[in-house]
Uracil phosphoribosyltransferase (Sulfitobacter albidus), 211 residues
Amino acid sequence: MSDPHLTVVDHPLVQHKLTLMRDKETSTAVFRQLLREISQLLAYEITRELEMTTKRIETPMQEMDAPTLAGRKLALISILRAGNGLLDGMLELIPSARVGFVGLYRDEETLEPVQYYFKVPDAMGDRLVIAVDPMLATGNSSVAAIDLLKEAGATNIRFLCLLAAPEGIARMKEAHPDVPIVTAAVDARLNEVGYIVPGLGDAGDRMFGTK
Ligand code: URA
């Protein structure tokens, strides 16, 4: 927790759920449910320092100045397609968030990201923007997504993932040192085809039941 750029959420519930998700015997339905649950715990952590203000309310007992979130609604940006798995759970916790999508696929030969969709809320410069993608692997698509969000005006961006490889963290740190990363775990390395090991396999395939 001492690196301001990287927060590893080592909460026992997060770690327990992550182990179940890594297990290759875990079914698609259970994987999806666990992802929903874990994303709420990660959302709790990444929103810990949201700006607050107070508003005057009346309880059944008396008036008080009660704490409430300040500023514009935050923007959750799903990096398609696997980002949607994190998005669903986060929206249960932050239902008034605005939502955007960045469509990037990874060219399996070059491992470089290719853009096919981009739609984000207005006033990106006035919002906390949380980009979500379960797997920070090479970092290529995350860096490209953050590039696009900055081009759209975002200045206050955080990145949320489930698993990160040291290579992806280094790449993000180099390209976007102003974007803090929150993850449930940092794994050992990438393999020769850019998958995180030990990892959990292809997050999109595991949540959608594709191969
Ligand atoms: N994307 C995945 O889904 N899994 C990995 O291990 C790397 C990238």
